[in-house]
Design a protein that fits this description.
The structure is a single chain. It is built from no helices and ten strands. It has 103 residues and is mainly beta. Strands 1, 2, 3, 4, 5, 6, 7, 8, 9 and 10 form a ten-stranded antiparallel sheet that branches.
Length: 103
């Protein structure tokens, strides 16, 4: 899906890691949410409170998922899912444009 129709977007940005990661929350008519975000170069640790689907729209990243010992390199068009109440690591060397869906 390349666009979201009939949604609301929260005006205030979610800003993390000294501004190296930012996102905007998109709210759908049924109350579900997604975030559209951008990561600059760096290494980041994220903690989840809900199950998340992370879709990479542009750029690339390496991810270290819970319980894994090997980093996975992903390019635009690829995605991964993480369960609720876990942490995972992301390394970005240039940039990463992403969409995160929550369930």
């Amino acid at each position: 899906m390349s666009q979201f129709d009939n949604v609301s977007v929260l005006k205030k940005a979610n800003v993390y890691f000294d501004g190296k990661v930012s996102s905007r929350t998109v709210v759908f008519a049924d109350g579900s949410t997604k975030t559209l975000g951008f990561m600059q170069p760096g290494e980041f640790e994220f903690a989840t409170s809900k199950k998340e689907l992370m879709e990479l729209n542009g750029g690339s990243w390496q991810v270290l998922l819970p319980g894994e010992s090997e980093w996975q390199t992903m390019q635009a068009g690829e995605s991964f899912t993480v369960d609720a109440n876990v942490t995972f690591l992301v390394k970005v060397s240039e940039f990463a444009d992403y969409c995160c869906s929550y369930s």
